[in-house]
Specification:
The complex is a heterodimer of chains A (about 475) and B (about 140). Chain A has about 475 residues and is an all-alpha fold. Chain A is about 70% helix and about 0% strand. Chain B has two domains: about 30 residues; about 100 residues, no CATH class.
Amino acid sequence: MNLQAPAVFILPLLTGILLAHLLWPDRTLHGLLLKAALGIGVGLGVRSLLYFVYLLLFAGQNWFIVIELAVFMAVLVLTVQRERRHGFRILPVGLRFPLAGSGRVLIAIAGIVFLISLLSTVNYLLRRRQGDWDAWMMYNRAARFTYRDQAHWLQSFSPRMDPLFHADYPLLLAMNIGAGWQALGRDSASIPMVQSGLFAIGCVGLIASSVGSVKSSGQAALALILLWGIPVFVNEGARQMADVPLAFYVLATGGMLFIYARHPQPGLLALAGLTAGLAAWTKNEGAVLVIGATVALFVMTRGRFAWKSLISYVAGLTAPLAVVLYFRIYIAPPGDMLGGGAARLALQASDIARHAEILKYFWREMVSFGSWGIGPLSIGMIPVLASYYAVFRAPISAAGRTGYAAVGVILVLQLLGYYGAFLITPYDLTWHLSYSTERLVLQIFPLLVFLILCASLPVEAVLSESPGRSNGVHHAIDN
Amino acid sequence: MITAWLRRGLLGVMVLGSLAASIQNLVATRSLGSTTDDPVADWEARFQPVKAMLPFQRGFVGYISDSSIPGVPYDAANDEGEYILTQYAMAPVIIVKGTDQEWNIANLSGRAFQEWNTQHAGAFQVTPLKGSLYLLQRIGK
């Protein structure tokens, strides 16, 4: 792989970062780092939407780069204009917990884990250049169908295609790959490889920067260690599938709503709406996130929608949701989940044995997901996180409760959505559960880590307390 | 005091466990094979002659494999994997199972091809290709 493929991604990434900054002009260092990570998913998502609209209007032509440049220039000019008014200021970090020796050690370990897992990702990508099973079946396949013979790309969604290939699936990854290939001038495995790596790095950067923004630098380091220290997440991030990108958008949406609960700036809701919509453009499960985020917003405002908030959220959500709905209504062949009519769905939903089997698999995955796979430490990460919360729990202020409630609502509704999908799946239930439960838990795992680490004492506070005496440090922490 | 030690201990386990797991995973990725091997690209190269012989760039092409021939043993997982890879390699041509199309691909072992040929001789013009592939053009019903 040469440097041409990464270069193709520079424009959308810069556009995404600037767009995130335009919508949420926070100038703290933590905030800027958060937007740098958020901008990866925003930029790739926006480029995917633009390329889809471009194909609808100008299929067979080869000037998408002009649109990319125009959008980038527009966002850049708007950003420069506004920043000039603020004198290009970056606010001081304002660390609540200045880094002591132990905090520095934690950050150093986070750096080591980051580098090791980055190497693992590169290793995996180079040894599986075309990705894994679902990548051939859906995402990279769809990209090939639309890029090769672009003039007739709409024929890619023929209902005669075997349902196994899911021609009805949302196109965020495929459109992005197609846009990259068009910029590169050929279809090359390096574009989906880079895309996969970017979403993995973006997800890790997003959890570290968002936890750092809400909590502390040490807690951010711990978030990175926990997420990128588990092999399943690292490997999944290199498989060129859509689960890590979806995890990115789930985390981004939950994170934006959480931060909005503390700092109610409308731009955060616009970003939450945008990332929720992009989740629906990534995978079918993302549609559940749109419902979850909307309900979460309702819960946060206790049913009293402030119009300004609602308008911001809807403004962010509109473009991706319009594209998803257009694709679903006018282009995509019928999906297979609802096939067989209401009678099959009712029969399956009322089958107690199905409920029991789904619950059994869910429980098993909750207990074993993300195991380190090291002898006596081969325990799942969710029990580890539960133990962590039990001993690190911090009191939650009344003002902070709505943020936790919002994230909790998203997680619960997402799980309920998965449960419902298994209930009505037309596939063999045991096969479907064993094939996908791990990846479904992976989709919500980063947001769960975010929630637990935000609801816990910062590690700096714990590392600075003397084991020989009790202290009331947690009473002083605004949570 | 116990809580403070418990916290430090748990934090230590979590950090060291993650660090060890990340190192172990890095070592494990080496077992995925060589960086110079690309079996999917090899599979694709196998289908290049088929693509070159088709009279269209986009359309429908039939597909049969060993699992389509009664009595011929096959590995179900491999069979499905090959079907998926064939669709991936043939894009944007849509692969349809069976031989109802004018153009069809037969991905058959020697025995499976012989079985198939005894039943369908004359109905198709058969072009044998490398790697147990055959391009079948229907010439009659």
